[in-house]
């Protein structure tokens, strides 16, 4: 099959009820750069496809003027993706190069990601792309405080889009940004209506495009627990010594197995013993992406840095556990930075 | 699938995907891969010992996890290891448990 990547990236578009996912999607669907994209949505009716429509392939699938294939999910997500894959292989739909899945507003994004990485068929043909989360400037601060689903969607996002900022005053919008930053300190944030929302930029955002975007800055978030009442904390471990990859694998897999539901996110750069370039790690709850080998260090600092966003886990306990498991190649220190 | 043990396919745990000789080079560096597996067994056994269990390599394709009484299960990779270890031990295996950490710190 020419033109079809070995592993088709799958982008998750998530966001709480009423946060503007569908509005964003219906705007983007008309974009010609989505011509090589398949989109899985909940209901055709919500997106008002009629003026984009070229051909109705069947009850669940339509072809849009931009060349984009748009499908509704009936039943299992894995089944819908397998069906799309099979139709593409048979040539009955255009050979899409990326897949966008719109989740429902109350969905936890993790099961969809797990489906992709564990399904015996899908994991050989698809890979996780970015998780894009929309957040409504008017309501997001309250939602983060009261809705665990909203909290999780924001915490796991690789790209945040603040919507409805034009419907509220500057102070509300600033409070919304602060609330988002408290949960997810270093993910790029675009403001709909102010920043240019380009389909390709949004959907080609990568979870780990490089060290510069990783940033790994993890400012102390003192009022996090107070503002959200959720016991969420964000901290970074800075490790002076090189890391033993084998022990690190044993340690992190054990940690995520037992506490994965409380580790909303772990990411960072590791200075692996015996390796010149850094290895980027990115995990969301129990799911860890395939480690990425960066070409070079972003700066002169060769220390490993791991950022954790956790619910109710003590930074000191994690740091102690890391040392006790023999992750540090020599007797180095793992200092909790924030 | 192995007809004897029912192990399905190859392990694709994230910890295997590190571009170091031995990890993720299963077709090109068999010796290094064995070494990496041996290192992993050693690292895991430091922890499993606290729960009366021992891990060993099985044919370079899976691991055997055994208790002192001889109960044994096959595990494919690190993802399955902790599930099986907890099932065999009959209790949670918490890497943040102060008692476990104290034991590990005492025997570096």
TrEMBL record, chain A:
GO terms for molecular function: hydrolase activity; nucleotide binding. The keyword Chaperone applies. Residues 232-326 form the CobW C-terminal domain. InterPro entries: CobW-likC_sf, CobW-like_C, CobW/HypB/UreG_nucleotide-bd, P-loop_NTPase, Zinc-reg_GTPase_activator. Gene3D superfamilies: CobW-like, C-terminal domain, P-loop containing nucleotide triphosphate hydrolases. One of its GO terms (cellular component) is cytoplasm. SUPFAM superfamilies: Hypothetical protein YjiA, C-terminal domain (SSF90002), P-loop containing nucleoside triphosphate hydrolases (SSF52540). It catalyses: GTP + H2O = GDP + phosphate + H(+). Keywords: Chaperone, Hydrolase, Nucleotide-binding. Belongs to the SIMIBI class G3E GTPase family. ZNG1 subfamily. Zinc chaperone that directly transfers zinc cofactor to target proteins, thereby activating them. Zinc is transferred from the CXCC motif in the GTPase domain to the zinc binding site in target proteins in a process requiring GTP hydrolysis. This is GTP-binding protein. It comes from Lichenibacterium ramalinae.
TrEMBL record, chain B:
This is Uncharacterized protein. It comes from Lichenibacterium ramalinae.
